[in-house]
Design goal:
This protein has helices spanning 4-18, 22-47. With 48 residues, the protein is mainly α. The mean pLDDT is 94.
Length: 48
């Protein structure tokens, strides 16, 4: 779940980049990136 500040930034930047559909696509993109970074961090810790 996104905190209020990152979700607001995601919605505004999504609107700027994608237009009206950015209200949905912006937060989805941010959540996807956060998830992938979390997986990557876990794999890096496991291999170290």
């Amino acid at each position: 779940m996104l905190h209020t500040s990152p979700s607001f930034i995601a919605v505004v930047s999504g609107l700027l980049v994608f237009g009206a559909s950015g209200i949905i696509l912006g937060p989805i993109n941010v959540t996807g990136v956060q998830t992938l970074l979390g997986i990557w961090r876990q794999r890096m810790r496991a291999s170290a």
